[in-house]
Each structure stands twice: as C-alpha cells, then as structure tokens.
Write a structure and sequence with these properties.
This protein has 3 domains: 54 residues, no CATH class; 288 residues, Cytochrome P450 (Cytochrome p450, Orthogonal Bundle), CATH 1.10.630.10; 36 residues, no CATH class. It contains 14 helices and 8 strands. Strands 3-8-6-7 form a 4-stranded antiparallel β-sheet. α6 runs antiparallel to α7, α6 runs antiparallel to α14 and α8 crosses α10. The protein is globular, with a radius of gyration of 23 Å. The structure holds protoporphyrin IX containing FE. Protoporphyrin IX containing FE (HEM) binds next to α13.
Amino acid sequence: NRPNHFPPGPRALPVIGHLHLLEPLIHHSFRDISSRYGPIIFLRLGSVPCVVASTPELAKELLKTNDLTFSSRQMDSRAITHLTYNSSFAFAPYGPFWKFLKKLSTFELLSSRALSQFHPIRKNELQHLLQHLLNKSKLGESVNVTQELLNLSNNIISRMMLGIRCSGNDSQADDAKTLAREVTQIFGEFNVSDLVWFCRNLDFQGFRKKYEDVHRRFDALLENIITNRELARKKSGGELQAEDLLDMMLDTLEDQNSGVEFTRDTIKALVLYWENPLEFQPERFLKSNGDTVNDTAAVDIRGQHCQLLPFGTGRRSCPGLALAMQELSTTLPAMIQCFEWNLVGPHGEKINGDGAVDMTERPGLTVPRAHDLVCAPVPRQLDIIQHFLIGV
Ligand code: HEM
C-alpha cells in the first residue's frame, strides 16, 4: 500500500492506516517506530499521509533546504478551524494571508520596538509574582509553580494583546483564564473525525459539541473587549495612543490598504536524532560549526543547526522567540536569586535530595508535565527580593 519511492514504515491497516500504532504520547510512538524502520518513515494517520524525520540532517533537508515545499501545515482540524475563525496565523496555509501576518508580527506586534514598549508590563507582572511568592513563603505555604508560571505568561500576553489580565479578581479575568486553558486543551486533543474520512460528519467523541461551546463563550468575551475598546477610541476622538496590540490591530482594520482581507475575525484569531535521547546531556545542544563543537558557543535555541528545535526553524519558526527568551532570562534568574525551592510531594510532604522532580509527560500540544511542579519557596536574602520588587 505504499509507492516504491516512499520512505519505509510498518504495514498500514485499511481505513485507519497506522493510527492503531500511535500511543497518546505520539512523539514516543514516532521514536519507537523510527528506531525499527530508520530515521525517515512514512505513516498514514487515517487518510492523512505523514513523513517523520528524526535526524538533524533530515530536519535541515525538510525545514531549510526544501522549506518552501513544507511551509504549509497540513492540518485539517475542524476544531482548530472553528476556534480560530478560520484565520489562524499558526495554522494558515503558506500564502498571502500568512505572509501578511508574518510581516505584521515581525515588524509590529513582536518587533523589538513593541517588546521595549511592553517592558513595563513584563516588569510589573514579574514583581507581582515575586510578591506573591514572598507572601506564600511568609505563611509557610507551598506554591504550584507550573500554575504560577502559566498565569505569568497568560497575564503578560493578554495584557500585551488586549489590555486585560488573565488572573485576578474580576469575572472577565476568570473567563479568559478558563477559556485559554480549554482552547489549548482542545488544540492538543486528537479527533478521529478529522483523520478518518467516513467519520467526517460523526461526533461520537462529543468533540464538536465541546469546541462549539468553547468557541461561543470565547467569541462573546472577545466581542465585549473589542467593542469596549472601539467605544473608548471613539470617545477619545483619535487621541488614544496605540497602547497594546489590540489598538495596533484596530488601526490595521481601519486602514484597509493592507492588500489582504483583515477583518474583525482576523483580530480575534490573532488573539533530534540523539544518541541515548533520554539521558540529560546538555552539551549536545552546544552550537556547532559543522561537526565540531565550539567551546565558547551558547546553546543554539534558534535551531540553526537543526539539533535542538524548541522554536522550530525555517519560514514557519516561532515569531515569539525573542519575547519568550526575554521572559525566560529574567523570570528564571529572579526566582532562583530570590528563593530557595524545596520540592513538595503529592501529599504536601517536603522532599529532600536530588533528582526527585517527576518529569513524566502527559499528552498535549506543548508536551506538558503530567504532574504540576509544587514547591515551598524560602527567601534567600530579603534585600535581594526588595531590589527586584523595586526595580527589575
Ligand atoms: C517558550 C516559549 C515558546 C516556545 C517553546 C514556542 C515554540 C513554537 C514552535 C515549536 C512553533 C512551531 C515552529 C515550526 O513549525 O517550525 C511555534 C510557532 C508559533 N509560535 Fe511559538 N513558542 C513559544 C512562545 C511563543 C510566543 C510568546 C508567541 C507569541 C506571543 C508565539 C507565537 C507563535 C506563532 C504565531 C507560531 C506560528 C508561526 C507560523 O506558523 O508561521 N510563540 N512556536
């Protein structure tokens, strides 16, 4: 059932193809199949053909040398289309609409100018987090670090985008937080109807009902935020300076010379092949010149050498890299400089010793950890914390 020039792979079953070989942790299944059939394999996910490449050389071949050929995401998910107003940046096919959004995000929304403009928001949210950790430590309470970091990034992104916080005391913050979690969960879920053609109109997992409900609530929240902002802009008689990304996008909506269809829905939508891969060997990520590791080089997170690809590489690589790295390089050092972190077990008990952090994964778009990281923070030196709280 495979033309001769296709890469090797296991025998496919009629209709479902190789779906029966895939476990919920899909990257583990790809690794296991690749270890039997080689670094490039061909699979059929229901009726969707799929090639899995697992060496830096092959990744380079596909994502750099031939990146134009592979620059569209072959995703045909009804949930994603519905939830993203069929105008998603991340899932858009390569073409004029994607190019327009790429330009807008690179030169406007996530440009270095925009990132400096939003520096006060990031500083304020970090101070908020440190103050919260200090309060918890004074009470001798533990902190769900996974949840706190999620709140931090959700707050920063929603303040940059829409001028609202995702965690706080008002109901809008609550709605936004719940919806953000539900939307990303649906993105990571596996819908049989998308992959098996004769199930296309069936909804035996209740999936369609779920994503339509999430979409309805998401739309109502966004409509409310956009309408309020439009009213505020009207009231100010054009005096309101662009303060967040929503203002920038409303400016784009008003200026219809962009050459692509930019609608209200577009605004809403914007809202390795390693040896022993399971061993912790950070040196494998050192930037290399050809095959030789350069001692002074930093870890290559931009994926130039296709060895470590946290942000992808090529045309479709992540436009949020600069923002993510700015956040990471301030938040992590601040948390480590200000506090010692004692691991807390599932029953609230303090855990001593090394290597006790549970790194088990659960399925999801971002390879999330199965169990949240819970720790008890202990302040190192109060004057260091005060320094951060006053002037990060
Ligand atoms: C540590 C944080 C982050 C990681 C690890 C990450 C990772 C990724 C990865 C792996 C991709 C797919 C790349 C590919 O297909 O080659 C991606 C795409 C994308 N990311 Fe990120 N990302 C992060 C933060 C962000 C942030 C902060 C934003 C925006 C505020 C963002 C916006 C996007 C968008 C819009 C795409 C789709 C780009 C396209 O399809 O052309 N990401 N990201």
